Amino acid sequence: MIKVRIPSKRQQIKQSIKNLDIANGIGAGLSLIDKDMRIVWVNKVQTRWFGASAKIRGRHCYKIYQHRNKICSGCPTVKSFKTGKIESCTQMGYTKKGRRRCYLLTTAPIRDSEGKIPNVLELVQDITKQRQIEKEKEKTKEKLLELNKILKANVNELQKKTKALKIATSTVKNLNTSLERKVRQKTKNLEILYKELLTIFEISRVISSTVNLKQVFSMIAKMSCELLSSRASSLRLLDDKKQFLLPVGSVGLSKRYLENTPLRLGEGIAGLVLKHKKPIMIRDISKDPRVRYPKYIKKEGMNAILGAPVLFDGEVLGTLIVYKDSGGKYAVNDELVLTTFATQAAIAIKNAQLHKNVNKNYLDTISTLVLTVEARDPYTQGHSSRVTRYSIDIARAMKIPDIQMEAIRNCGKLHDIGKIAIPDSLLKAPKILNIAEKAQIELHPIIGVRIVAPLRFLENGWPLIRSHHERYDGNGYPDGLRGDSIPLIARILAVADAFDAMTSNRPYRNKLDINRALKELEINSGTQFDPLIVETFLELLKAKRP
What we know:
The structure is a single chain. The chain is α+β, with helices and mostly antiparallel strands. The chain has three domains: 10-126, Beta-Lactamase (2-Layer Sandwich); 131-353, GAF domain (Beta-Lactamase); 376-544, Hypothetical protein af1432 (Orthogonal Bundle), CATH 1.10.3210. It has helices at 10-20, 44-50, 53-56, 61-66, 76-83, 128-166, 173-208, 213-227, 255-259, 268-276, 294-299, 332-375, 383-398, 402-411, 424-427, 435-441, 444-452, 462-467, 488-502, 514-523, 531-544, and strands at 29-34, 39-42, 87-94, 100-110, 119-126, 232-238, 244-251, 263-264, 280-282, 302-312, 315-325. A six-stranded antiparallel β-sheet has the order 8-7-6-11-10-9, with helices on both faces. A five-stranded antiparallel β-sheet has the order 2-1-5-4-3, with helices on both faces. The radius of gyration is 31 Å and the shape is extended.
């Protein structure tokens, strides 16, 4: 359980909240609620949504946020006061302008020095846009299903007509042959379109289930290429200033081509598609003046181009272009296929962007708590950032997989987050701790994992938080792991953590010089630390020193 000491004076309360530094930088609203369900304090986001701080402080939260005259049913704040645990729910609320919005409300109890809960901290996130995205997905699904029904009916009708034409008399045999050929071709085209739309529906489901932006971009480029039987494809999105179309995902195109063809609105095929919000088909690039860089495309071996806008709720996000080499052509139906797929791609992109922003807000909140832990002890300020930097250098030198590098980046700064539950008297103790005190300190890795456990996107980094105090010889804590059974990222951080601790001042000793610290790492290599990691770190430091 997170424990934050709440001073008795109102000014000290404000200052404590300010020291947490989570008030205005996380992109979400924060409120401090007392036991009477009155608002004690709000951050700038809350005032922007619900009104000036001076007007809403001291008033009941359900009156300000819900326009109610009594406590809301299922209120998570009430639950946090009763259970002493973190609670959450989804609620509808009203802004100061009377607009109805959907919010994700997460509440956390704040305990005083006696363990009582005088206040609850509310984290309010506006998820209205996410709900709109979900509704848009459902609408698109319904449209595709309706289109499928129409296409099936058309196919059945055409098949009936084909059978009827076969029964025609011999006197009209020549006409019948011609008509049957046309019907078969039309039926084939409709069946192909039907299969393609079913494929789009399935592809959209796969893409929408992915929340990693880079993976989404890559999947869109790859699947559009396969869907349109193309040799190459490129996904371009507008930059932040909405001036250039920048490549974010591609298949079959060289890096030189992508880097040499930044496009403005209205420039080239992609720029024209974006400007007019309509698909464009080019059957021969050498004969069409709209092609901005024909020589570059020729060098890539392409001749035919089909482009469609990537639109979400009327907003232009970018363009999706597919290419065929010499001899390849696109049919009219291909425009509908690519346009439909581009619409699904836009939903997947927006969904991934939303998840990325939510995850960043969560990570920023937890990182702010780390700063709070370090602020309690001036000897450890900046410790987590330095340890993370050392760990990334080691991991890069060892060429570990990208997923583990990402775990270090996300969780390196959080490795001591569990110390937020350790009393100041132990963290700042200028003496050797007794057995009971040491046991309490050694709980912080377990507490740390419990704190970040709700953040599933940090799951790959949980072993780093739990096991960074394990020893190579098995005498560490909390699980007594030995050798390679200790997760690699935890072994890396253990070396970086020890080096920074030795080269920093502590209440019970002065810092060691770098040479002495390096010597200590060598002495404890194979007992406390992984020998390979120690060797790698020493080489890195020696290479950096003059």
